[in-house]
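Exercise 7.
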Amino acid sequence: MRHASPALLAYGSVRLLGAVVFALWARREHRGIWHLLAESWDCDWYLKIAENGYAHTLGTQFDANNMAFFPLYPLLVRAGEVLAPEPRGAVGLAISVVCSFLAAWGIFAVGDHLYGRRTGVLLAALWGSLPVALVQWMGYTESLFTALTAWALYAVLTGRWLWAGALAALAGLTRPTGAAVAAAVSLTALLALYRRGRAGGRIPRRVLLGALVAPLGWLAYVGWVGARLGRWDGYFAVQKLWHNEWDGGVGTLRTMHDLLAVERPQLFLAMVTATLLASAALFVLSVGDRQPLPLLIFTGLLLAIVLGSKGVYFPRARFLLPGFPLLLPVAAALARARTHVAVTALAAAAVTSAAFGGHMLLAWMGPP
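Solution. The predicted structure, written as tokens, is:
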């Protein structure tokens, strides 16, 4: 904790700036701060799942089946409300804020392990300065998922295979993209086993167990939805009712073309488009930097899932929030720069994030 304290302080400062700007802006607009952070949009879905559980049938109505939302976060909310009854949404918001610091700590740990402490601090601060980073302090799953992802990847990098598998399994119970975390852990573990076998060495059981445990969370929930609906593709049928189908990126490219060449995009959609393009470019840089395999597997699959879907376009910058390894090339470059350059760049990112956070919840007339 002491070693990570500069990263946690930098992250907290960046997010506090964003929260203050949002609060002042919301008060000026006479909007309910608590409602927007703890009860709006997906927050409300999770709170209702925590209170009433999941649907029993598939139905035919679009954007209405709550089995599209994975169970770990609402389970934590329900457990927290039993232990400490508070105003609606308080437990969920508290979980997100606490998990955001756990995520920043894990992100620092990955950066510190690969490139040193300075890079780790900058990586955590940059993650808190993303355009939609205000979501990290909302009743959403991004902070919980990123915390599990960061520590799972750190566990892989440091050879803690059972921890990696267990954390990946929990990530698979949190978001659909938990499949990317599971793949990163399992494929890296299997590759390590293959190399050990080729060298004639003894195969450690903990590596094999980590590989087997990692996908169990995601598979368990997808299997449970199928059993509940009485069809093997039940979960994918639910996602289809939410317009989420994988088409290899055709729908994404068509939307980008329409926004950039045909329409005059709204500011929020322009930001989402810029984030998607920048993320793809950063992945190319990450491959060029020869990042460790588990990081590349995770970010590559995360991008494939997010960019390859033909579903709704506007939340995709949020969907990429857990992809913090994409920021490693930027953090490493800033770590090599002079201090005043790094501070100026980070301050500019923090101010931009604060502005976009307020715009996202107060000007953009839709979910983040």
